[in-house]
Design a protein that fits this description.
By secondary structure, this protein is mostly beta strands. The protein contains one helix and six strands.
């Protein structure tokens, strides 16, 4: 699945929580946020989902959750976004 967003209106933030083995990566375009969460659940099984929010993941409304195949989620997305000129943000 490809998500295309205009570079001028887009920023991203990345965080990792080693305590629960989850990495979150969020791209914000206007008032819509796309968050990829990937890692392992409490049982050690791999998981990955795409969440779409109106607003931010912390305070916005969840519009959709799409389960992904954990084997298809790419690591180091931030390097590709930086190469495309998308600005990194401390938070969204």
């Amino acid at each position: 699945m490809d998500i295309t967003v205009p570079v001028a209106n887009t920023s991203y933030a990345y965080q990792s929580n080693q305590a629960i083995s989850i990495q979150d990566f969020t791209v914000k375009n206007g008032d819509t946020s796309y968050q990829i969460s990937a890692g392992t659940n409490d049982s050690g099984e791999p998981l990955a989902s795409l969440y779409v929010y109106k607003g931010t993941p912390e305070t916005g409304k969840l519009l959709a959750e799409i389960k992904l195949d954990p084997a298809t989620v790419a690591n180091n997305i931030s390097h590709s976004l930086a190469e495309e000129g998308v600005k990194e943000s401390d938070s969204l």
